[in-house]
Specification:
Polysaccharide deacetylase family protein, hydrolase, metal ion binding, TIM Barrel, NODB_dom, signal, 307 residues
């Protein structure tokens, strides 16, 4: 009898143990809001969607230069809802075009200003994912993070959601009235394609699916369609986890010895170090490709009629 019960327990637990895990993060908060939503509307909608779809916690990687009165209130709302506020530099500088000393100063200024938020954590997300285009800069910033008690908040799942947002806002501005059902389907499908691609790359080079970190941006389409994305992830067997849990994966300790001026994310780093030279960026990470799909799948128009 006991052996039968044990088998039953194992069978019931199996789907959970095989579930792939993913944490959700949003860059560039409090991002400019001058389109479909105002800043407060976006925050309210995003918080509500995350709660409704039972997302335990996300992280907002924030630029301290945007902390005007409204920006502070927006980050306070995210923090009070239980979400992490983290460091994305003061001014979102491109490390490839910025000296180490100036870059570290911006990092520390953001640390000071973002520390006011109750749920602030010492995680640093490099703007544009660019971690230094020479060894001195790369190693200098690694040392600065260590000195000030920070972890590198790498991503594993890359995409161009920011360009989808620009297409959406341009359509609204031009009064092209995108169909919101089609828009949601497009958003989810494009993101799932890249998520599944990078997960397969991880399984190829690691032999397993790691605890993934999804890069998104704090934008109107995120607020509108994050619930649809979460539902699709769960439907396909993914479990939504906290950023803290994701960064406990052993790949958090991985450091490439290569200098990568354009970083494809942690899975891309590992793949490159293991000899993969092509396909480090998924096909959806292409602006022209996304524009063509947006026009045909969302606007359902011929591109020639819109030029």
């Amino acid at each position: 009898m006991k052996s039968c019960l044990m088998v039953l327990v194992l069978l019931l637990a199996a789907p959970l143990s095989l579930a792939k895990e993913i944490a959700i993060t949003f860059d560039d908060s409090p991002r400019k809001a001058a389109g479909y939503f105002s800043g407060p509307e976006r925050a309210q909608k995003l918080i509500a969607e995350l709660k409704q779809h039972k997302v335990p916690q996300v992280a907002f990687f924030s630029n301290s230069s945007k902390l005007d009165e409204e920006g502070v209130k927006r980050l306070q709302a995210y923090s009070r809802a239980g979400h992490v506020i983290a460091n994305h530099s003061h001014d979102h500088a491109d490390f490839n075009r910025t000296g180490l000393e100036q870059y570290v100063e911006a990092f520390l200024l953001a640390d000071e200003k973002l520390g006011q938020f109750e749920n602030f954590k010492k995680l640093y997300r490099f703007p544009y994912l660019r971690e230094g285009n020479d060894k001195a800069k790369r190693d200098g910033m690694r040392a600065a993070l260590k000195k000030h008690g920070y972890s590198n908040a790498y991503i594993t799942l890359n995409n161009y959601d920011w360009h989808i947002e620009s297409l959406f806002q341009a359509a609204i501005d031009k009064k092209l009235a995108p169909d919101f059902e089609r828009m949601g389907q497009f958003y989810v499908q494009v993101l799932m394609e890249s998520i599944e691609y990078y997960d397969q790359m991880a399984q190829t080079h690691l032999g397993r699916s790691p605890r993934h970190v999804l890069l998104l941006h704090e934008m109107d389409i995120s607020a509108l369609f994050i619930g649809d994305l979460v539902d699709e992830l769960k439907r396909k067997g993914w479990r939504i986890i906290t950023p803290e849990r994701a960064y406990q994966d052993e790949i958090a300790q991985y450091q490439t010895e290569r200098v990568l001026p354009f970083n494809p994310g942690r899975i891309g780093e590992i793949a490159r170090d293991k000899g993969q030279k092509k396909g480090l960026w998924h096909s959806t990470l292409d602006e022209n490709y996304l524009e063509q799909r947006f026009i045909s799948e969302v606007l359902q128009a011929d591109m020639k009629t819109l030029l």
